[in-house]
Amino acid sequence: MEKFSGYSDDSTSETSNSMPFASASGSPVENHSLSVGYRSLTEGRTDTRNHQGLSPRNYLLAAKGGSSPRIQETRIHGLPQYQAGFAKSMMVPQPLFSETIWGSNRLGNGESFQGSSLQPGAWSFVSNFNSLSGSILDDRTGSAGSNLGGIDYSVVQNQGEVRNARTFLGLLQGDGFVKYCSDKDGSRTLNGLLRLRNPEITREIYKKVFALSSSRFPIVFDLMLDQYGWHVFAELIDSLNYQQLRLITYEITKDLHLFTALAIHTHGSNSIKKIIRVLSRSSLISFVTNNLCAAFYLIMTNRIGLYVVSECLNHLRAEDNKLLYEAAISCCLDLAIDHDGSIALIRVINTIQGLQRYRLLDILSTNAVFLSQDPEGNYVIQKVLSLDNPIFTHLVCYQLRGYYAAISLQKGGSHIVEKCLGTEWKSWVIEDFLSNSNTLLHVARDEFGNYVIQKALKVTKKSDSPLYQKLLLRLRPHLSILRSGYGRNVFNLITGGQSVKKL
User: What number of CA atoms fall less than 13 Å from residue 301's CA on the CB side?
Assistant: First the structure.
């Protein structure tokens, strides 16, 4: 039985960047002043939590100070291994916007912005921008359909209209720009402007995302974490040339803690997956994969973060994923016994190839006894057996000799034993049961074990094996005991539903 995660790859899938535009009336300054002035504070879904229970923004803020995730490097056979944890301390929300805009240092629910543990870091402002000629992904698809201040941005052609658009963007500075991107209609408008692939407009927006917000982080992080802002980020990534992509990728990946915070956040992970797709054929992808390797276990054992790694496995070339596969091999046993980690590991098994595949399956098969008795690890062994690779199927069956009876009494383990009974090494399983009459009876009466004994009777009878008669000889003296409880299934299989007296 294969393991089902309870959610699919689409559970954190991105909403389409193509959002319809609504027209605005009145002057551009008036309309956008209202939009900036009355926009509500939006941080994505209010119930969003990361795997460790911290709110997304607090986790991001903690990355620069206070209660931050600690990633400690050790090395095993020359490969970096990381352990991460969180200090036990209460996080206080940090203000997203300045008091000059809100007129207060409190949120609408009465909570204060004050008292944050954030310690401003030394961020470098990128002021030297390269030429914007030529976009790496300039397919000139999509168009804006919004009328803002009388300008139809779907047909911006002459320099005058471009200047008007740039003047409008000039009104959005710092936190005002963040607020506008975090608004549903504002996000649509900026997406439409970016789809024009106009170098001047793209440059204006690109410059703004490197500015610092009131939280003392580059605005790009605010966009990536926001439910509407990340759509602006995704469209911006599509509009940039190689040099611009290089700068923004470096900014996002230069701090491992911040990158990890993005990877395990709903909208942040969508943003990183977008970067992976855009950079899939570029050498810049190494910035991303190196960070994923550095925090591999933490990300792979997070129900959101594992989809970021899956994005690499599904879209990158084998050579680009080589380090990720090495990281998976090194911590495969730890991943196998974690709920989300086991799901992620099964996805690695589906894609890994060559010598790395052999090494991974060999480690898992050699540890079959340990993993078969683990509530999560048993699914990984089931996956290995389902591959029908004779080398590793034989290795698993061999390792489990002497443990089949004990494993049959467990929910997950019983499925493994049933799979082993379907192989050419089924005699090892049945010989374990026949070694002791009390063991065979105990398994036959068990909630899970009775299905294993049924499978043993069926496969040996079908193959006309002498082991079938041996099983019957051991079970017939106990039919009166088997006729009740979970053993009734075995009783009916042997007797065909007849009573003991008729037999």
Answer: 19
- Residue 148's beta-bridge partner residues? 151
For residue 465, which phi and psi values (nearest 5 degrees)?
A: -85, 145
**Cβ partners under 8 Å of residue 435, min gap 6:** none
Q: Where are the alpha helices (DSSP H) in 254-399?
A: 256-263, 266-278, 285-294, 296-300, 305-315, 318-330, 332-336, 339-351, 354-366, 368-372, 377-386, 390-399
Which residues lie closer than 8 Å to 379 by C-beta, 6 or more apart?
A: 1, 2, 3, 342, 346, 412
Q: Which candidate, 19, 284, 318, places its Cα nearest to that of 136?
A: 284
Task: Dump pLDDT digits (tens) for 285-315.
Answer: 999 999 999 999 999 999 999 999 999 999 9
Per-residue pLDDT tens digits for 229-278: 999 999 999 999 999 999 999 999 999 999 999 999 999 999 999 999 99
Neighbours of 89 (CB within 10 A): 11
Residue with tokens 């992509």: 245
Beta strands in 134-205 (DSSP E): 147-148, 151-152
Task: Map residue 164 onto helix, strand or coil.
Answer: helix
- CA 36/CA 20 separation, integer angstroms: 20
- The pLDDT tens digits of the residues spanning 393-412 come to 999 999 999 999 999 999 99
Q: Three-class SS string for 72-89?
A: EEEEECCEEEEEEEECCC
Name the residue type at position 453: I
Give the count of beta carbons closer than 10 Å to the beta carbon of residue 183.
21
- The model carries a pTM of 0.68
Side-chain-side CA neighbours of residue 103 (13 Å) = 3
With beta carbons less than 8 A apart as the criterion, state whether 327 and 114 touch: no
The sign one gets for the Cα dihedral 281, 286, 288, 294 is positive
**Cα(458)–Cα(478) distance, rounded to whole angstroms?**
19
Provide φ and ψ at 395, rounded to 5°: -65, -40
Q: What is the amino acid identity at position 417?
A: V
Beta partners for residue 212, in sequence order: 218
DSSP bridge pairs for 484: none
What percentage of the chain exceeds 90 in pLDDT?
A: 53
Helix (H) or strand (E) holding 70: strand 69-76
Pairing of the two strands 147-148 and 151-152? antiparallel
